[in-house]
Amino acid sequence: MPDFNPMHVIDDDLWALLCEVRASDPGAILAYAQHRKRRRELTLDGKLVILAADHPARMVVDVAGEDGQMGNRREYLARILRVLQDSNVDGIMGTPDIIEELMALDALMIHGGAKSVLDQRVLVGCMNRGGLSGAAFEMDDRFTAYDAAGLDAMKLDGGKLMVRLDMQDPRALDTLQACAQAVDGCVEVGLTAFLEAFLVHRTDAGYTVDRSPRALMQAVSVAAALGDSSLRTWLKLPYCEGYETVAGATSLPILMLGGAARDDRHAVLEEFVAGMQAGPNVRGCLVGRNVLYADDPAAMARAVVSIVHEGDDATSATEKAHG
């Protein structure tokens, strides 16, 4: 299999056209959004694999060390397109700039005779990105991206929000309240809220996630109760040993997050396999870097899809993805 080259996915001409649309015809993106073919139902089989693409807006631009890979927007978009073009992921989650860039690229490629990569896909907009990574105000995670009205205006299918619970920081309460209001906003416009929640502890190196089953169970119990209604809430949670305890804390559907990129991608797949077996409400994955920055993003995405939608083990999924 030839090496994946992001510049072959978005060549110089396509990149120049995208930049031209951004400068000269932004209305074309809004027009595209109004006519995109959406799914009638959120999920086709009760499960979802959604690609996460919202990290740069929180000042997270590194994949490993200080490589700045996610800060290269052309490469970042190319990796996303590679997944959308050559795998059956259900959708994409991103901040407004990324969603709009993908819409513009899709419109340009359709005009050039290609098949749409966004039609019938679940598009989820990221809502709160104010808690910049490493900032003194990181726990003051304000809603600085989409609001419910913005999601609805762009004909998206849901909103993603995050609450990190630092029990020693009173600013976490502000984020908790804002998330409750955002859940209400999504319900009002008939969209799904994908709510990520976990406990964190501040260290000299920054915040660390408490991945113990008890801590995640506690976070789930708080998150599931946010807002006037939980009818349109899905939870996004990290995997841990003893995931049965986490899944057993709610009847709400759960998507596993991927976390920081790891060299051992097979271990990531093994965790997803174990998580899918932890309870009937574990319904898939919302994963970013561990797919996007694999040697071939599309092959890694196909493996995750096989695990979630077909029930394959990690080895079979990997073999099928590269077959």
Description:
With 323 residues, the chain is of the alpha/beta class. The chain has one domain: TIM Barrel (Alpha-Beta Barrel), CATH 3.20.20.70. The protein has helices at residues 6-9, 12-24, 27-35, 73-85, 96-111, 148-153, 171-188, 213-223, 243-247, 265-276, 289-292, 297-310, 314-321; strands spanning 48-53, 91-94, 122-126, 158-165, 192-203, 206-209, 233-238, 254-257, 282-287. α9 (243-247) links the parallel β7 (233-238) and β8. α4 crosses α12 (297-310). The protein is globular, with a radius of gyration of 19 Å.
Topology readout:
Blueprint (H helix, E strand, L loop, with lengths): L5 H4 L2 H13 L2 H9 L12 E6 L19 H13 L5 E4 L1 H16 L10 E5 L21 H6 L4 E8 L5 H18 L3 E12 L2 E4 L3 H11 L9 E6 L4 H5 L6 E4 L7 H12 L5 E6 L1 H4 L4 H14 L3 H8 L2
Parallel strand pairs: 1-2, 1-9, 2-3, 3-4, 4-5, 5-7, 7-8, 8-9
Antiparallel strand pairs: 5-6
Helix pairs in contact: 2-5, 3-5, 4-12, 10-12, 12-13
Features:
eight-stranded parallel barrel; TIM Barrel; alpha/beta; 13 helices; globular
